[in-house]
TrEMBL record:
Residues 31-250 form the Cytochrome b/b6 N-terminal region profile domain. The chain crosses the membrane at residues 69-94, 123-141, 153-172, 218-239. This is Cytochrome b N-terminal domain-containing protein. GO terms for molecular function: electron transfer activity; oxidoreductase activity. GO terms for biological process: respiratory electron transport chain. PROSITE patterns: CYTB_NTER. One of its GO terms (cellular component) is membrane. Keywords: Membrane, Transmembrane, Transmembrane helix. NCBIfam families: cytb_ExtP.
Length: 250
C-alpha cells in the first residue's frame, strides 16, 4: 500500500519532470534562458530573426528614421497586409468568367465588411508599389547599391519586377471592362517583344484572346506563383541585408 511519503515523492518527481520538460521545450524554441540580464538580453536579440535583421553594431546617425524612412519595412508590411486580405478574398472569389464579376459585386454589397476587405487589398497594393519604388530611390540616393551590396540590389530589382507583376495579374481578376481592356493592352505589349512576342502573349493568356484561360492563368500567378517567388526573394533580401551589413552601419 502506498504511504504518504510515497505519494509525496511521486508528486515531487512529477513536478521535476514537467519542469525539465518545460525547460527543454523553451530551449528548443529560444536557445537561451529567460532574458533577465544584460548578457541573456543580448543573446535573445541576436538569436531572434525579427530583432536581428540589422547588424549588431551600427552608427548612431544611421538609426535616424530619415536614413531609410522605413520604406523597406513598409513594403514588407504592405506585403503582409496583402497576403492576409488576399487569403480572405479567396473565400469569396471564384476565378470563372461567369462568376468573377458577380463575386466582386457581392463583396461590395452583400458580404459583411466585404467592401472594406476589397479596398484594403487594393489600397495596400497601390501603397506597396509606391513604397517599393521609393525604397529603391532611397537605396540609390544613399549609394547602398555599391559593393558589397550589388547582389542585393539585383535581388531588389527582381522584387520590383515581381511587385509590378503581382499588381498587373491582380488587375484582371474583377473581370470588368477596365480589367479586360487593361490586360488586353498589357498582353498586346508583350506581343511586340522581339522574336518571342506572339509566343509570350500566347503563353500568358492561354490562347489568342482574353478569356477563361487567361483568367485562370492570371489567378494562379497572382495567388500562388508570384507571392511564393516574392516571399523567397524577400527572405534572401533580408538575409543579405544582415550579411552584407546595413550601409548605415559602416
Ligand atoms: C518587395 C520589395 C522590397 C522589400 C520588402 C524590401 C525590404 C528591405 C528592407 C526591410 C531593407 C532594410 C533597410 C530599409 O528598410 O531600407 C532593405 C534594404 C535594401 N534593399 Fe530592399 N526591399 C524591397 C525592394 C528593393 C528594391 C526594388 C531594391 C533596389 C532595386 C532594393 C535594394 C535594397 C538594398 C541594396 C538594401 C540594402 C540597403 C542598405 O544597406 O542601406 N530593395 N530592403
Amino acid at each position: 500500500m502506498a504511504t504518504n511519503k510515497d505519494s509525496q515523492k511521486f508528486v515531487q518527481n512529477f513536478l521535476k519532470g514537467t519542469e525539465e520538460f518545460g525547460s527543454r521545450v523553451w530551449k528548443s524554441i529560444f536557445r537561451h534562458s529567460w532574458p533577465d540580464s544584460a548578457r541573456t538580453r543580448s543573446l535573445a536579440t541576436m538569436s531572434n530573426v525579427f530583432l536581428h535583421l540589422h547588424p549588431t553594431t551600427i552608427r548612431r546617425a544611421s538609426l535616424k528614421v530619415t536614413y531609410t524612412f522605413c520604406l523597406g519595412g513598409l513594403s514588407f508590411f504592405f506585403f503582409l497586409v496583402l497576403t492576409v486580405s488576399g487569403v480572405l478574398l479567396m473565400f469569396y472569389y471564384v476565378p470563372s468568367v461567369t462568376q468573377a464579376y458577380q463575386n466582386i459585386k457581392d463583396l461590395e454589397t452583400v458580404v459583411f465588411a466585404g467592401q472594406f476587405l476589397r479596398n484594403m487589398h487594393r489600397w495596400s497594393a497601390h501603397a506597396m508599389v509606391i513604397t517599393v519604388f521609393l525604397h529603391m530611390c532611397r537605396v540609390f540616393y544613399t549609394r547602398a547599391y555599391r559593393p558589397p551590396r550589388e547582389f542585393n540590389w539585383i535581388v531588389g530589382v527582381l522584387l520590383l519586377v515581381v511587385t509590378f507583376l503581382l499588381s498587373f495579374s491582380g488587375y484582371l481578376l474583377p473581370w470588368d471592362q477596365l480589367a479586360f481592356w487593361a490586360v488586353t493592352v498589357g498582353t498586346n505589349i508583350a506581343k511586340v517583344t522581339p522574336f518571342l512576342g506572339p509566343e509570350a502573349q500566347f503563353l500568358l493568356i492561354g490562347g489568342y484572346e482574353i478569356g477563361q484561360n487567361a483568367l485562370i492563368r492570371f489567378y494562379t500567378l497572382h495567388v500562388i506563383a508570384l507571392p511564393l517567388i516574392a516571399a523567397v526573394l524577400m527572405a534572401v533580401h533580408f538575409w543579405r541585408v544582415r550579411k552584407d551589413g546595413f550601409s548605415g552601419g559602416l
